[in-house]
Amino acid sequence: MKKLPPPISETNNAPEEDLVTLPAPAILSIPHVKGEIPLLWKSDDTETTAAAIVRAIEERVVDTVTHQVWSPYRLWTKEERAKHNVVSSRLTTYHQAYYTIRVLNQDEDPAAITASL
């Protein structure tokens, strides 16, 4: 049986070492921000930017400033972003990079792509 993600209350203010293993919240969760989104998080010094972008778009967004885990960017619809005041050019950059990773470099493992933004 597949384990459900933890409730949002358990992902808030988690210690940084726990952020590596926490899944995305079970319900849509987007931070209330004034424009900018969390910076791209890498799990360690060996993780590539490409792998971090894929995780943020497909799996979960990790915010090391607030120590929270948010829903992946793929779920952040235009309507939801508007509700949460998200108007970030960084999000556009991440999606453009994701397209390059998944479509133009589809035969490569994101962990092996060493180009950065």
Please write out the topology.
Blueprint: H1 8-11, H2 16-19, H3 49-58, E1 61-63, E2 68-70, H4 78-83, H5 89-104
Antiparallel strand pairs: 1-2
Please provide a written account of the structure.
The structure is a single chain. By secondary structure, the chain is mainly α. The chain has one domain (11-112). The protein is 34% helix and 5% strand. It contains five helices and two strands; from the N terminus they run H-H-H-E-E-H-H. The protein has helices spanning 8-11, 16-19, 49-58, 78-83, 89-104; strands spanning 61-63, 68-70. The protein has a two-stranded antiparallel sheet. Helix 3 crosses helix 5 (89-104). The protein is globular and about 35 Å long. The relative contact order is 0.20. The mean pLDDT is 84.
